[in-house]
Amino acid sequence: MQDRNSQRLVAVSVLGALLFNYPLLALFNRPVLVFGIPLVYLYVFTAWPLVIGLIALAVRRAGR
Length: 64
Prior knowledge:
By secondary structure, the chain is mainly alpha-helical. It has one domain. The chain is built from three helices and two strands; from the N terminus they run H-H-E-E-H. The chain has helices at about 1-20, 20-30, 40-64, and strands at about 35, 35-40. The chain has a two-stranded antiparallel sheet. Helix 1 (about 1-20) packs antiparallel against helix 3 (about 40-64). The longest helix has 25 residues, at about 40-64. It is elongated and about 45 Å long.
């Protein structure tokens, strides 16, 4: 059971590394405003809580 939880945390870490790496950040680095917020900032500040939420979900499942 511990092995599966470790695998989930590793998978979320890899996802986080991919989300905040150059190729994806470059896709959102455009001079576009969404609700007055630059697109790259909107991407970062929505992907960041998503990764945190996935980590919390993985840790919560580990406690059960």
